[in-house]
Amino acid sequence: MERRCVKKITVLLIDDHALFREGLRALLSRQDDIEIVGEAGGGKEGIQKAIELMPDVALMDLKMPDMTGLEALCRIIEKRPQTKVIILTVSEDDEDLFTALRHGACGYLLKTVEVEKLLNSIYEVARGGACLSERLAGKIMKEFREMSSKSAIPVSKKESLTSREMEILSCITRGKSNKEIATILNIAESTVKIHVQNMLKKLNLASRVEAAVYAMKHKLFTDMPPRDS
């Protein structure tokens, strides 16, 4: 394989399956321009090692016993923003995909990814780019095409939303679940569901993902600081 980098790319592996980590290590260690600097079997350990080892790239699973990959992602971005995080998972769930990207992941790949694609993704992300599995990239393009077909919806539609619906839309755009939104806004989860249904109906949208894409497309919250719990 042609050498792609002058400097070695340092990589941290974060996954609770030891055999999977072992396979990744064996694969990546064969590359002259990639160095595995550490491994972690969970999110908390991954955060600590990201801070201590300062890797260029972290390959991280979403499903781990002590902390979700999304939670670990946010902490790594906060504590070690120079580390580029690629989510490597079995989840093709739309909400996982969009939430990871909104929270700062530079890539989202399925564990069925081909070796060449994985290697090229590491090189690309290390250079400041981004990467997605083709199937998932197709999902994003589909969402934007569908949103474009609804471009007749004016941005002024947001004026028809109540202040509570706008708060909930802001939370959805930041990847929050109904349960998390209920906690943040101190309301019942059932109330959140009702607000979400009303909001989607007003915006003529079919899903939370469409709502998040719509909000980002029209930059509805560029002047609104995020409100986290």
- The separation of the N and C termini measures 47 Å
Let me know the CATH homologous superfamily of the largest domain: Response regulator
Instruction: Sum up the overall morphology in one term.
Output: elongated
Order of helices and strands: EHEHEHEHEHEHHHHH
Q: Give the CATH architecture of the largest domain.
A: 3-Layer(aba) Sandwich
**How many DSSP helices?**
10
Q: What's the number of domains? A: 2
Number of beta-strand segments: 6
Low-confidence stretches: 223-229
Given this structure, which CATH class of the largest domain is correct? Alpha Beta
CATH topology of the largest domain: the name is: Rossmann fold
Sheet of most strands: 6 strands, parallel
Helix content: 40-55%
Enumerate the strands of the largest sheet in spatial order, edge to edge or round the barrel: 2-1-3-4-5-6
Compute the average pLDDT: 82
Summary tags:
alpha/beta; Rossmann fold; Arc Repressor Mutant, subunit A; six-stranded parallel beta sheet; 50% helix
Description:
The protein is α/β, with parallel strands linked by helices. It folds into two domains: 9-133, Response regulator (Rossmann fold); 152-217, Winged helix-like DNA-binding domain superfamily/Winged helix DNA-binding domain (Arc Repressor Mutant, subunit A), CATH 1.10.10.10. The protein is built from ten helices and six strands; from the N terminus they run βαβαβαβαβαβααααα. It has helices at residues 18-28, 43-53, 69-79, 94-102, 115-126, 134-149, 163-173, 178-185, 189-203, 208-217, and strands at 9-14, 34-40, 57-60, 84-89, 107-110, 131-132. Strands 2-1-3-4-5-6 form a six-stranded parallel β-sheet, with helices on both faces. Strand 4 (84-89), helix 4 and strand 5 form a beta-alpha-beta unit. Helix 6 (134-149) crosses helix 10 (208-217), helix 7 packs across helix 9 and helix 8 packs across helix 9 (189-203). The chain is elongated, with a radius of gyration of 19 Å.
